[in-house]
Amino acid sequence: MRIAVTGTHRAGKSTLVDELSDLLPDHVTVDEPYHQMEEEGYAFAESPSVEDFEAQLTRSLANLDEGPGDVVFDRCPVDFIGYLLAHEDRDAFDLEAWLPRVRAALRKIDLIVLVGVEQPDRISLSATDDDGLRLAVDEKLKELLLEDPHAFEVEVLEVEGSPRARAKQVLAHLADASR
């Protein structure tokens, strides 16, 4: 089973990935592209540019091409589409050019777990967090995945609650799907 955990920044994705890693010990965990690239020396702008998000999108697509098996991905290509569509320079992003590659890559994912911003918000934000961007990306991701205007045609499970409750929702969904 190939699972991608998606959502805006500071929504609880990585915490859910950690929970799933404990509960699904047969699954390999793949860190999000930002951390992979940063570790390799990629220099991101303080406020990520369209080029930074496109580079992460490219890495996310490559991550999905790597080996078969049971994997939990921290982020998927749709995350970066969401960020690019919410970016102040979104007109510089050519969505149509990327859609065929994104659709093909998403066929390699069995389930996308969407971690949205909840009301009341479960995450404490620092003064440096851009809550406007965070909420705009959350809205874009829900539109992209739940309304599916670009025919991604991937199974999506939206989760809520505490990290453990979210993980239990994923496990229950997996158990139902295996029946």
Automatic annotation (TrEMBL):
Which residues belong to any copy of the NadR/Ttd14 AAA domain?
A: 2-164
Q: InterPro entries from the entry? A: NadR/Ttd14_AAA_dom, P-loop_NTPase
The record, for Pfam families, names: AAA_28
Please state what the protein is called: NadR/Ttd14 AAA domain-containing protein
